[in-house]
Amino acid sequence: MEITNRQTGSALIHKVDSLTGEGIYGVTFLLSDAKGNPVGTYQSDNEGYVYIDQGLADGKYTIREIECADGYILDTQPKTIYVQYGGCTTITWPNTAVRGQIQIIKKSADYNPTNGLPAGTLLEGATFEIYNERNGNKVDTIVTGANGLASSKALPLGRYTIRETKAPANYGASSETYTAVLEYSGQIVKLEITNKSLSTGVSIEKTGPKEATSGQPVRYVFSRIGNTSNVMLQSFYWRDTLPAAVRLDKVVTGTYNFPGTYKIVYKVNNTGDYRTLADSLSTSRNYTLTASPTALGLAANERVTEIMFVFGQVPGGFSQVEAPMLHCKAVSGLTAGSSFVNVADVGGTHDGVWVQAVSRWVTTVYGKPTPLPKTGY
To answer: Less crowded by CB within 10 Å, the N or C end of the chain?
Structure first.
């Protein structure tokens, strides 16, 4: 006796957004045979697919959409498919989303001393990115025009997050994330977002002894180190360039008003790469680090010429709390009446542009006056 088996057919439905072509999750379908008898209900997966492989016999079937996803219009028009022996019948089924729009109005938050625009001025050139909150996909990028208005394309109903990625010229971008909820067809959600005028600046001030003699300790004290901008700076640092008249002995790091870590590097004889003195230092702790030639293992003809504190990214208002200090020692054989200059600088970047400041301190070498003064007049 010979027994044969017949391979059954299957069906694949892809439910997609009619505008974007993206799959739609959670759409429910009812499959019925040619006589109208229900075969089963099925729901689209996270990519919008429904695969029916439960052994469909050859013939005609009807598919009805009985429940659509949130934010879409239910398609009540049934679809007819034909299943054949061993085959897979496929159908792409678009749905039209119920749509709304997001509009952003961009204004100046304050008077801008750079361009003279008063508070409330409509601003051109602000760029925003809009993301679908459900899946995190970016759905649109919009830019404000001369009237300060930026409008999105038609978007399906749902929740969206908006981030400003570029501010108008001479303004700082907002760091906030905004939310817009489209709840009904034709809705326009309007957001008014302001930008503060951009102000960039850094500061540093150093002091030391006005006079020094050979072999005498020389201490430099640093103050007002900070990011005086109202925006974040990248690659923030402060540095001291030591004159040949002194040798570095130890470093007192000071403390800073924002939590974080930083490192200290130094350069020898103004050549080669920076070497690391200490890393992963806490901004809230005041360290004393030995940095003498012996401690650093320097040769007799080597000396530290630069020492730099490297912070990376710092917010606006970042500044020192306890004062950093460099303890040095004047070398032997300095000429009386001569002087040496110590230079400190600070800097950081905003939008790729460096912002820097410099402070100098001049120390005179003390010596006995010639000729010596007489007494007894």
So the answer is: N
